[in-house]
Amino acid sequence: MHADIVFAGGTVRTGFAGAAVHEALAVVGGRISALGAAALAARGPLTTVVDLAGGALLPAFGDSHVHPVMGGLGLHGVPVRDRKNVADIVEAVRHWSEEHPDAEWISGDGFDPWLALDGRFDARWLDAAVPDRPVVLRTMDHHTAWVNSEALRRVGYTANTPDPVGGEILRRDGSTEPLGTLREFGALSPVLALIPPASHEAQVAALREAAARFAAAGVTWVQDAWVEPHQADVWVTAATTEPGLPVRADLAFFLEPDGWRERIARFEADRDRVESAAPGLLTARSVKLFADGVIESGTAALLEPYTDCPHSHGIANWSPQEFAEAVTAVDALGFRPHIHAIGDGAVRNALDAIEAAARANGPRDRRPVIAHAQLIHPADLPRFAELGVIASMQPLWAQSDPLMTELTLPRIGPERGGRQYQIAALVTSGARVSFGSDWPVTAHEPLRGIATAVTRQTPDGTPEDGWLPEERIHIETALTAYSAGCAHQAFEEKERGVLRPGMRADLVHLAADPVETAPAALASLPVLGTWLGGRRTHEAGVSEHAATGRR
Question: Cα separation of 387 and 407, whole Å?
Fold first, then answer.
């Protein structure tokens, strides 16, 4: 049988560690049909031949933890990401507000939390730019918001307002007056609830824009790690109306502590509705839970107190008993728990809850996920493999950047600071590891994360030997975490993640072989093409022609 597509003229890497490379790959009906000489022999008069131009063809990437709708919407707010100081952010707010005089609320996402001393941002700084409309800006980790005085007034936060459950309202020095910095969702949610929501159409457009960015980065599957009920409809609309979506996705329904028993009751019906609407493209088999916050805000749950705040262990969003009950209920319905856990206390609570669910519901292949796992107590690291827990890691975070040096390390000290993002240790332990970006928290391009996982360096190449160099991993291990690791998380390892006959033709064409590329150049390696089930979803400077022409 003649192939529909043949890729030739470069290196084909199958995704099997240490396996031989091939010179060609053939696709029939959206699936891989042959490799090497057999693929070249499958060319016929109607075969499309893709010239790899000396580059490499690999299994397409996945993203094991990302927020596409949120990220797409964030592209159109105040552009505060990558601003160098507070004054730059204030000026961006001023400029955007003048260009949008009819906007009732002014919002933006992604500014760096280290730009103010101790991450304390003052409402009065924003008041100087916009005193008469509410302003809400969220940090790059989305666990902290900087608001102006009008936003504080609208939500009703005053000197007499106590800290809400699961959140913190920072106060001015020497008083109880709100400063303008809000930490964690208990404090953020009441403010965010006042912002007029984007329309369904706007959210669909935002999702399409985000999905196009993923395709351009070589990504064909994503785990949406936080789906509110209405956002399931956004995914269904985008997937079932023209032009469709260039990525597959699994949706993780968000479960918060307040009223969780009532919320979980609708998840089965939502899952069935999503999967029947877009079979083969969308699944909805995960449930997202937050075990804690983040270290830089002092809200990650730690086993021992914070170094700079000896009275605080951070914020655990659930009591251990209720957390175990919720995870057990999620598991009993056949969903995968997908748990945000940053601090070692939260990681332990998550592992304990997963173990309790397995004990209550009996043995099966469940593949629960703990996302981020920034700080793991040595006694808990082997439990990932023992319990079959997938560690969804964000490799781009594993560097000594200002977030680490200015906020994180001062809060946890050198001993705990020296055992963060233990990717190599998890791999060595036998745990399953998948890679993701947490975009829009950090950049969505897998090659940037891969470069950091391999070098543990900042983009400027520091430190020379990498930060915590014992946690560096081999390039093939990093590629696997972004491909086969994500496929395993999705229960699709028999369908994609490696290149062999019968597998889906989810492919990425890179300008050079990443295994042979200098680590410093990996982050900027061009993605020339992406295919989802043999359908091209991204094209950039690649030569494609009919087989009757040049081969």
Answer: 32
Task: Supply the DSSP string of 183-214, one letter for each residue.
Answer: ESHHHHHHHHTTSPPPPHHHHHHHHHHHHHHH
Are 232 and 284 contacting, i.e. CB atoms less than 8 angstroms apart? Answer: yes
* Both structure tokens of 380: 């808990």
Gyration radius (Cα) of the chain, Å: 24
Token couple for 310: 């000896």
Amino acid identity of residue 7, one-letter, is F
| Model pLDDT for residues 423-464, shown as the tens digit of each residue | 999 999 999 999 999 999 999 999 999 999 999 999 999 999
Q: Can you tell me which residue has the tokens 């666990």?
A: 143
Within 25-148, residue ranges assigned H as helices are 37-41, 68-74, 86-99, 123-127
- Report strand pairing: 168-171 vs 144-147: unpaired
pTM: 0.93
**Average pLDDT of the residues in 385-397:** 98
Please state, for a pLDDT cut of 70, what percent of the chain lies above it: 98
End-to-end CA distance of the chain: 18
Residues 337 and 353 sit within 8 Å (Cβ to Cβ): yes
Amino acid at 446: P
**pLDDT at residue 140 greater than cutoff 90:** no
Beta bridge partners of residue 546, listed in sequence order: 48
